[in-house]
Amino acid sequence: MNSSALALELSLARERPDQPEVLALIHALDTFQSQLYPAASNHLLDIEALLAPEVRFLVVRDAQARVQGCGAIVLREDCAELKRMMVRPEARGQGLGGALIAALEVEAVCAGRPLLRLETGVRQRPAMRLYERMGYRRCGPFGGYRADPFSVYMEKLLGA
Fold this sequence. Notes:
By secondary structure, this protein is α+β, with helices and mostly antiparallel strands. The protein has five helices and seven strands. A seven-stranded mixed beta sheet has the order 1-2-3-4-5-7-6, with helices on both faces. A hairpin with a 5-residue loop joins strand 2 (55-61) and strand 3. The longest helix has 17 residues, at 20-36.
């Protein structure tokens, strides 16, 4: 799907994460993550945390206004952290993940956080490939994270 087709068929906007259709997507992400990793290696933000003022939560909807993906950034003191990235399995491969990350990068820059960091799981190779294609490079644990054999830490200096 090219970017003009993407723009015609999808909308990407800030929305609340506590809407029923968005909650269902977040629940699917939680279920997926809990099957891949032990609880101590799941660093999920709950809905209350996603509603905090320092969070920018974006939703991708299709032409019928159905939720196809979501993602968030959390504004930290020295960076923004990418969280809660999810695209429905049936909607993958159409550029939604990349479009969502690009929009979240704009949100980070607009909030004065040109460094975007993330933690993802070692068993999520498609996600890691997407992040690498978008310019993210591996780094060490940051913030409150500790070394974890199930985690991969990445960062990108935006605008570089």
